[in-house]
Amino acid sequence: MSESRDRSSDLRAGWILAAITAANYAVWLGWDQRYDVGPGGVVSGPYQPWQVICLAAGLGVLALVAGWRGRAGAAMIAIPTVMTLCFAVDAATDSETYGASLWPIGAVMVAFATLAGVATVASLAAAAAHR
Description:
This protein is mainly α. It has one domain. The chain has 4 helices and 2 strands; from the N terminus they run αββααα. A two-stranded antiparallel ribbon has the order 1-2. Helix 1 runs parallel beside helix 3. The radius of gyration is 17 Å and the shape is elongated. Keywords: Membrane, Transmembrane, Transmembrane helix.
């Protein structure tokens, strides 16, 4: 019974982490689709540095809390998966994206970077919680 309860608890934690990750993406990046063209014709965006920093900080806090509460494994699965999915859907469905064919490369980078960050933070938090 304890093992099934633990599995159920891990599954519930994963779904909660997934929902919060998707909401975090929507709040910071999901609404901004406009690229900026500078006076010299240099294209930047669509995201501003502060948006990406806030997104990363939110994911860091989420990974920290999950690790501290003993859900580092759920965090390492849910957060990078949902973050990559959100980015991929957003980039692939934006018809006005500059360099639209490059989104798969960006998705791979998002997947690895998010996994590395979440794994580091959640594991350190889990280790600190069990001292």
